[in-house]
From TrEMBL:
InterPro entries: Lipid/polyisoprenoid-bd_YceI, TTHA0802/YceI-like_sf. This is YceI-like domain-containing periplasmic protein. It comes from the Bacteria. SMART domains: YceI (SM00867). Residues 1-20 form the signal peptide.
């Protein structure tokens, strides 16, 4: 690499670091949700109502310099109290022992208004790499909005409870779809 290339690369990285801005999530306009198949025939939707995150975003290059989130597992909400109580039990999230779920970004690859965010997801004390699609990045004034989507296998995180269905299949799919819509402000 010649001197001019090295200087250009250094300037680009420096400008990127200088233009990154920390954003605070607007909980009133953010949704941390998931979907899982029930009895192999329908989707059950749920969300978490308590969470916080650190977002360091460069609006010029539309890239994330840092993204981390902590979700309070006790705030799970599927709209059915009995189901929520079961999800909080040792069969699933074991919220008394593991009250937090954590995501830490390890890398981000931008592609215009979209990208791929790779990070480590920790549930029940088990950490696994996860790739999330980042879509619909929009910046207006002092706000940024975007969506994160991905899939995990819940059994990778020791969320193993299930019940066989008499006619075939299981009560709860292993695949969980993650869908997070974020609005944040400087």
């Amino acid at each position: 690499m010649n001197l001019i290339s090295k200087v250009s690369a250094t300037l680009f990285l420096t400008v990127g670091l200088l233009t990154a801005t920390e954003y605070k999530v607007d909980n009133a306009h953010t949704n941390v949700g998931f979907t899982v198949k029930h009895m192999m025939i329908t989707n059950v939707h749920g969300k978490f109502n308590a969470y916080n995150s650190v977002i360091d975003f460069d609006e010029v290059t539309k890239t994330f310099k840092k993204f981390s989130a902590t979700v309070d597992t006790t705030s799970i909400d599927t709209g059915i109290e009995k189901r929520d109580a079961h999800l909080k039990s040792d069969d699933f999230f074991a919220v008394e022992k593991f009250p937090k779920m954590i995501f830490e970004m390890t890398s981000y690859k931008a592609d215009g208004d979209e990208g791929k965010m790779t990070g480590n997801l920790t549930i029940r004390g088990i950490t696994k790499p996860v790739v999330l699609d980042v879509e619909d990045i929009a910046v207006i004034g002092n706000k940024v909005g975007f969506s994160l989507e991905g899939k995990i296998n819940r059994t990778d995180f020791d969320l193993k409870w299930n019940k066989a269905i008499e006619l075939g299949g299981v009560a709860v799919s292993e695949e969980v779809k993650i869908k997070v819509d974020v609005e944040a402000a400087k």
